[in-house]
Design a protein that fits this description.
By secondary structure, the protein is mainly α. The chain is about 65% helix and about 0% strand.
């Protein structure tokens, strides 16, 4: 059942919040997240700085806010009780997004793309979304009365969280809408773990070389597995000074 229509005051607040977010996302996309100020967002929306902070506590909040959750809960409630859990998650999420008006769905895609492109937003987004491995596992354990350290519960949560990361990477590479990619990724998972039939075979040397190469590049970027001891020589370059 849909909630009753909000009153005039609530509709006005929702419009102001939406306008602030719309202008903020446009400015972030044009100028960059770090380079855009709250004052610029407020001016673009034709409101005061104090009005901005009545709706959003921080600049990060204006990106992280979404109102998809009620639609998601509504979509879940409509599913038959015998719907498999993974199918229910996929259907609930995608149905909620597809019920958004076209303009709002487009804005949501922009919002999610900005989160993926700004490292300072990514960790906060994962925590607030409730879709971290721990959050998913706890919700599943509590819902079905299973222990929080249940291997299957944690593995399921890891798969779901990993599917979201895979969908984000694929959306960035292909240019497709994230929610469409997520639907495809989750649907693929319903068939079982991908590539489970592969063996190392003739590719073992190439696979090992690739892993070693990535490990070496990671060590170079972080100062080496030994903590960058070589850089402690008096004549060694001071890498950390350049990390601002």
């Amino acid at each position: 059942m849909r909630p009753p229509n909000p009153g005039l005051r609530e509709r006005k607040k929702a419009r102001t919040r939406a306008e602030l977010q719309r202008h903020a996302l446009r400015l972030f996309r044009e100028q960059g997240f770090a380079e855009t100020t709250v004052d610029e967002i407020a001016a673009a929306a034709d409101v005061s700085r104090s009005t901005f902070f009545r709706y959003f506590a921080t600049k990060e909040d204006v990106v992280l806010f979404d109102d998809v959750d009620p639609l998601m809960a509504e979509a879940f409630a409509e599913l038959p009780p015998d719907t498999p859990l993974l199918t229910a998650l996929r259907t609930g999420v995608t149905t909620a997004f597809r019920r958004l008006p076209p303009e709002k769905r487009e804005l949501e895609e922009v919002r999610m793309a900005l989160v993926r492109s700004a490292p300072e937003l990514q960790a906060a987004a994962r925590e607030r979304s409730g879709l971290t491995v721990t959050a998913i596992a706890d919700q599943v354990a509590d819902t079905y009365g299973r222990p929080h350290d249940d291997l299957d519960v944690l593995l399921f949560a890891g798969v779901v969280a990993g599917a979201r990361l895979a969908a984000q990477a694929l959306a960035d590479r292909s240019g497709e809408a994230y929610i469409d990619v997520l639907d495809r990724v989750m649907m693929r998972l319903e068939d079982g773990l991908p590539l489970r039939e592969l063996t190392i075979g003739e590719g073992s040397a190439r696979l090992a070389a690739g892993i070693a190469d990535r490990a070496a590049r990671s060590d170079d970027a972080t100062g080496g597995a030994s903590g960058g001891a070589a850089d402690h020589r008096p004549d060694a370059p001071r890498r950390e000074q350049h990390r601002m």
